[in-house]
């Protein structure tokens, strides 16, 4: 049966365009509801429509946001009644700021650089996310591992406010460096300190909700108790006031299990009103009664436990991230024997000689937070296993297994942020966007033997889009999320994942901070040997003593598919007429921007890999490299930070009497 077209589907015989005759307010409402593909096509329909769309700051802003996997934060364009003299941002101002930020990030050309000194001795804990840096302190002269009660909060989002005053006066001041000292009144504007009445064991923060999580441990003393027991508590504070968070019904959340060791290893993820915490046990070498790795999730606003997960036997959970608001991605190491069976609890000497480990990504899913469980928390369901690159290990041959970590920032939030109240962020990343960074680092710890054929400190980095992993998850309404099926968990071999990811190494440089990824951008230090220096005392020496001359640089990667595609098309348009736009002619360094389209080939590494590993056929990227003197870069959506200690900085002998040289500092590059 033929469908009768609707009246609006039939063009006017006279050629009159009724759409363009609608009031501008209605037209804006129509185009602001289109997705990226449809809105892009509308720019090409006709000149009249193109001119209308081009002249509209609101529509151009939406198009630019969609093209970069961002969305507008409505709190930034609404007047704040608590700040009556502050004007809300306009679409034109947000668009100008966004375009400048994207251009500066593309070229790694910050608009300003600020050096912030750390006066207090560094403690053992730190955290950084979206402009807020947390550091515990220690007693001067005390060990760095000592537990502290004091916490320093550096809100680096405040720095941008007083820097912008200089930009109005002089637009050419891009290379100006602002130095803040403890004597400067500006430091008090962005640095706060608080001392708690308990020792801080771990910290986490979510600046978008003004949330600070502080962990404490309280020993439990019972009559006749012969071993250590303690209770772990999570205190929910306001980041700006250090008072109990006003949105939390319970300001202290208690960990469900009792601790049997004083030392803890925790990983955190805070996403909207959910708080997820992984507690790592001592593993298979910790004894028969050692706790397994466990993961719990709460609704931190109500204190209700929502989901729980315990590592299977012979499986070690290395870390975790939220892939979506209702799924985990967990790097896992599995102890095995050559016959592909899991290692038994008690290893015989013969089994110990044959013991090896395999590396995987485990994907778990669970019902959304709004779906309240009736009888206790939901148990996260194992829905997929992804094999990782075939990196070899032999326990008794001096080749220990690689330690895995995974990082992806920010979490897949769906809430918009009103914080900081005086200046909410104008735009926020889409929850589906971003890359996951998985690192493989050679373990030391209880492995005293090392094969002399091993490279020095080998490290691999695997980069994969979150959307690639999310394709392996079930639908949010799937019954699999609420009950365990008898079917085996599907296993994805690495050969299937290889074209969709990039494996770099084994010469990657490890960092002591893990805040190196934000959405689709990834920052990493890189060491390059540029020559050798003869260190012999005289020419008569039989032995040549040479020292390598190294060059340290900062590499800024961008894996955003649309930005990479745009770079490729821009280069293709600059080719001479008639020349085919082949990848070999387009990739490479142009004006300091390196476009990589070819796959990455890793040759066999002694003791670690036996075959060539080819990855990245479907994951091109852009990379910009700049000189640096720091091995600890951090990144968020507006800035790159370079953490520097006295040992990393080049000290001018003429200024060696300056007490400031004894301080660590962070170089804040605003984009």
UniProtKB/TrEMBL annotation:
One Pfam family assigned to this protein is F-box-like
* Ranges annotated as biased composition (Acidic residues): 653-671
Q: Where is the F-box domain?
A: 16-64
Residue segments, region Disordered = 646-671
Under which name does UniProt file this protein?
A: F-box domain-containing protein
């Amino acid at each position: 049966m033929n469908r009768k077209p609707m009246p609006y589907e039939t063009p006017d015989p006279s050629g009159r365009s009724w759409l363009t005759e609608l009031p501008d307010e209605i037209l804006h409402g129509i185009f602001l509801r289109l997705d990226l593909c449809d809105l892009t096509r509308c720019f090409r329909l006709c000149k009249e429509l193109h001119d209308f769309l081009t002249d509209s700051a609101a529509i151009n802003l939406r198009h630019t946001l969609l093209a970069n996997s961002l969305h507008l934060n409505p709190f930034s364009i609404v007047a704040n009644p608590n700040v009556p003299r502050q004007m809300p941002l306009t679409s034109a101002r947000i668009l100008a700021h966004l375009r400048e930020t994207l251009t500066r990030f593309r070229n790694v050309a910050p608009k300003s650089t600020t050096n912030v000194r750390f006066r207090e001795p560094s403690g053992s804990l730190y955290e950084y996310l979206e402009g807020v840096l947390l550091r515990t302190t220690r007693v001067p002269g005390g060990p760095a591992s000592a537990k502290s009660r004091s916490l320093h909060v550096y809100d680096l989002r405040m720095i941008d406010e007083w820097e912008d005053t200089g930009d109005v006066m002089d637009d050419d001041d891009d290379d100006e460096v602002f130095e803040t000292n403890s004597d400067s009144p500006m430091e008090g504007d962005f640095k706060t300190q608080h001392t708690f009445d308990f020792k801080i064991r771990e910290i986490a923060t979510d600046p978008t909700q003004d949330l600070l999580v502080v962990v404490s441990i309280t020993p439990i003393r019972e009559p006749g108790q012969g071993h250590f027991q303690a209770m772990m508590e999570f205190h929910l504070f306001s980041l700006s006031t250090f008072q109990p968070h006003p949105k939390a019904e319970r300001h202290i959340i208690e960990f469900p299990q009792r601790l049997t060791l004083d030392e803890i290893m925790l990983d955190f993820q805070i996403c909207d009103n959910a708080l997820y915490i992984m507690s790592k046990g001592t593993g298979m070498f910790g004894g028969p009664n050692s706790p397994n790795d466990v993961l719990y999730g709460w609704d931190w606003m109500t204190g209700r436990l929502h989901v729980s997960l315990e590592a299977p036997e012979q499986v070690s959970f290395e870390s975790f991230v939220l892939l979506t608001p209702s799924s985990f991605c967990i790097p896992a190491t599995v102890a095995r024997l050559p016959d592909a069976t899991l290692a038994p609890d008690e290893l015989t000497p013969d089994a110990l000689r044959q013991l090896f480990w395999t590396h995987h990504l485990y994907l778990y899913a669970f019902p959304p937070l709004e779906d309240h469980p009736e009888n206790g928390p939901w148990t996260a369901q194992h829905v997929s296993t992804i094999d990782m690159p075939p990196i070899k290990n032999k326990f008794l041959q001096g080749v220990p297994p690689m330690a895995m970590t995974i990082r992806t920032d920010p979490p897949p939030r769906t809430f918009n942020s009103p914080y900081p109240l005086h200046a909410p962020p104008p735009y926020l990343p889409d929850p589906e966007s971003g890359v996951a960074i998985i690192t493989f680092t050679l373990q030391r710890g209880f492995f005293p033997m090392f094969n002399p054929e091993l490279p020095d400190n080998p490290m691999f980095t695997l980069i994969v889009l979150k959307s690639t992993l999310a394709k392996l998850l079930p639908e949010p309404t799937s019954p699999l999320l609420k009950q365990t099926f008898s079917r085996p968990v599907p296993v994805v071999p690495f050969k299937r994942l290889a074209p969709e990811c990039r494996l770099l190494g084994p010469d990657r440089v490890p960092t002591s901070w893990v805040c190196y990824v934000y959405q689709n951008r990834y920052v990493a230090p890189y060491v390059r040997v540029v020559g050798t220096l003869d260190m012999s005392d005289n020419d008569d020496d039989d032995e040549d003593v040479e020292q390598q001359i190294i060059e340290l640089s900062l590499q800024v990667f961008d894996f955003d598919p649309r930005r990479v595609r745009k770079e490729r098309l821009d280069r293709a348009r600059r080719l001479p007429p008639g020349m085919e736009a082949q990848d070999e002619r387009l990739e490479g360094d142009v004006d300091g921007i390196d476009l990589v389209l070819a796959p990455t080939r890793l040759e066999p590494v002694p003791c670690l890999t036996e075959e060539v590993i080819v990855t990245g056929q479907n994951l091109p990227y852009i990379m910009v490299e700049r000189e640096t003197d720091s091995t600890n870069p951090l990144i968020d959506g507006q800035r790159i930070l370079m953490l520097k200690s006295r040992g990393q900085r080049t000290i001018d002998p003429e200024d060696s009497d300056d007490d400031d040289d004894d301080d660590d500092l962070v170089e804040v590059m605003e984009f």
